Amino acid sequence: MLSPVLCSDLAALEPEYTEADVISTVEFNQSGEFLATGDRGGRVVIFQREPQGEYNVYSTFQSHEPEFDYLKSLEIEEKINKIRWLPLHNPAHFLLATNDKTIKLWKVSERDKRAEGYNLRDEEGRLKDLSTVTTLQGEYNVYSTFQSHEPEFDYLKSLEIEEKINKIRWLPLHNPAHFLLATNDKTIKLWKVSERDKRAEGYNLRDEEGRLKDLSTVTTLQVPVLRPMDLLVEASPRRVFANGHAYHINSISVNSDCETYLSADDLRINLWHLNITDRSFNIVDLKPENMEDLSEVITVAEFHPHHCHLLAFSSSTGTTRLCDMRARALCDQHAKLFEEAVDPSRRSFFSEIVSSVSDVKFSHSGRYLLTRDYLTVKVWDLNMENKPVETYQVHDYLRTKLCSLYESDCIFDKFECAWNGTDSVIMTGAYNNYFRMFDRASLRDVTLEASREVCKRRAVLQPRRVCVGKKRKETDVSVDSLDFRKKILHTAWHPKENIIAIAASNNLYIFQDRLTPNGHHNTPEIQSAPPKWQTQPNPPTY
């Protein structure tokens, strides 16, 4: 089992929530200091980690709005599909966010040093008003909140475009500002998040309230001056990448060259330059001349972490292709094909559906590929295409329930997966708000539950077990009692430390290794003995 961890529940404490509050993507930046989430309402929430390890809200903004494609008479949701951070090169942070149609490059920056920080509870554990928040060391505090996307309407297709944020990706940090990409179904935006501690005063043509003066009253010229001001964290859209996709965007991935990124929809993958918004290059095209001949769709695409010419994409047929952009401009021929033959004895009507790959992640070393289908997680060695080197059963007990899962559309749920920082442990979500972890060295696994009930002060988080027959222990859960409405689709692992983020509906949980008496973190080792998981008080609500 895993070693003890700390649990932070950044969930909405009200039991009632709207569809727009459901989290649709979770992404750490390269350093792990910031964590970005997107939801079906097009909002991006950024959490910052405090010195002692906890995450609090850093910034919130609206990335995408619902649109309507009048040409296709199609609504475009604002839901954020993917977020990707750009490498950090200055104090501002940049990230890409996309919905089904538009990719946006956002800049998140600061104006000043943070005076007190953020913490949503007083000494007695009661929630404070957000306007009175002060910092509690070690937490991920609210840093910035902004609306990334708004709902739109595609009048061409007569289709509404949801504001739901599909993906968020951070860019590498190169200056004090942070940059991230956020996308809904159609539009990708690059955001800059930065801080400012001074404001300009003494304009010649504007008064103190910003209104234009009467030019006849301006008799002297003065030099504007900068005055100190309270901390202001502002998020501004630096780029909007629209009209690049005819179908819903499902993936965005920042290249290791820190200059380009890819976006993928059901049939095409486009390559973008972060400074050019009016054109992209099509590098993969699966659209047949006759759509009746369509046999597969692209489900996810990802750049290699070190080699900027390599990318992998998976399809609904269960295959994963590795492409080399040096070979040709249009990667219509793959360099490698990773596919495992289906056991004829287990073939059924649902075989192709459950084999569809919902997520692909390169290992941090770049040696392995991690793929997630409906029932399993597989690890592939890039040097061996014919079969995975490791296969882990996530919830094999659902094989007898595939018919009912098909009728309820749950069989089409897309679960994500994640590596830990050393590529030694794998994590993925399941139903009933359970998530699974697999230790690659010991081949042991654990099932844990993310819920507000377990996030009490000093509470112990117990491992869970799903049984098919009679329950052996009181804590066992029967497969017939699983709640398929509660599902963990989105997970993320801190790139360097043993901190994980779990999105369950409109709730975000952050778990962290429990500190040992000498102040060090425990290693996430899966042991045979039941673990004791320690929890912290519930931090912020957003």
From TrEMBL:
The keyword Repeat applies. Keywords: Repeat, WD repeat. Signal peptide: none annotated. One of its GO terms (cellular component) is protein phosphatase type 2A complex. Residues 519-542 are annotated as: Disordered. One of its GO terms (molecular function) is protein phosphatase regulator activity. The keyword DNA-binding does not apply. PP2A consists of a common heterodimeric core enzyme, composed of a 36 kDa catalytic subunit (subunit C) and a 65 kDa constant regulatory subunit (PR65 or subunit A), that associates with a variety of regulatory subunits. Belongs to the phosphatase 2A regulatory subunit B family. This is Serine/threonine-protein phosphatase 2A 55 kDa regulatory subunit B. It comes from Cyprinus carpio carpio. The lineage of its organism: Eukaryota, Metazoa, Chordata, Craniata, Vertebrata.
